[in-house]
Amino acid sequence: MTTRHAFVDPTLFRDPNFLIAVTLMFVIGLSMLSPSVLLPSFLQSLRGYTPTQAGTLQAVRGVSAIVAVMIAGRLVGRIDPRILVGAGVLFSAISLLMLGGFSLDTPRAQVIIAGIAQGCGAPLIVVPLSVMAYSTLSPAQRAEAGAILTLIRNTGSTVGISTVVAILARSTQINMSYLGEHFSAYDVQRWQATGVVPGANPGTAHLMGEIERQAAAMAYANDFHILALATITVLPLVWFLRPPKGKVTRRLDVAEMG
């Protein structure tokens, strides 16, 4: 960083637009791939879906993302890109809140609706955000800026996946402790209400298994709500971005899009 020809150009981070874009890309990395790890395991382990059924429900997200990319590409030169980025952040946050409201009885329709909202979020953010990030940089800096944005987004995804998996395991154990303490051997009335005799028998094993499922469902909800909070927190940063002057008349190269 102190040499004349640094490996990373430090002047990139003096540009406010690029610095804000880096922050947004990191958070989008958190919320973009983490649900793709959590949702399939939720559907398969707690809802009893097969891998094919869970994958089919996830495919809806991909279809909506393709449509959103085409829409964002056409609108980015016609309306303020900050509006598109803000809409994308809201779509992502709303989809995560919807996922956080899932229970063990959530129908497939709600999963599909949440997938559509989530698929629309990321493209509406990435496409116009890339335009604004590069609009204040010189053409010689854009390739390096694209590599940095891609690195930051991938780093955010890695950190997000690791964090939500750790929180999921910890939260499941905590929830089991809270729920299980209501079914001690001394809670006679509670055991009588469930029709199960405490001890080493199938009824007790089934009851504890159901408690574990409920604890895991609550842990998944905690993860999704944390991701939603992290996503909505960066929404005010969008309005500090400077939109490009005039209309966007050229397409960004693949390397510049990150």
What's a quick, concise take on this entry?
This protein is an all-alpha fold.
Kindly provide the name of the CATH class. Mainly Alpha
The helix count comes to 8
- The percentage helix is over 70%
- CATH fourth-tier homologous superfamily: MFS general substrate transporter like domains
* Shape type: elongated
Please provide the count of β strands: 0
Low-confidence stretches: 249-258
Description:
This protein has helices at about 15-45, 50-75, 80-100, 110-135, 140-180, 190-195, 200-235, 255. It is an all-alpha fold. It has one domain: MFS general substrate transporter like domains (Growth Hormone, Chain: A), CATH 1.20.1250.20. Helix 1 packs antiparallel against helix 2 and helix 3 (about 80-100) runs antiparallel to helix 4. The protein is elongated. Residues about 250-258 have low confidence and may be disordered.
Topology:
Elements lengths: L15 H30 L5 H25 L5 H20 L7 H28 L3 H42 L7 H7 L7 H32 L20 H4 L1
Structural features:
single chain, 258 residues, mainly alpha, Growth Hormone, Chain: A, 8 helices, 0% strand, elongated, disordered C terminus
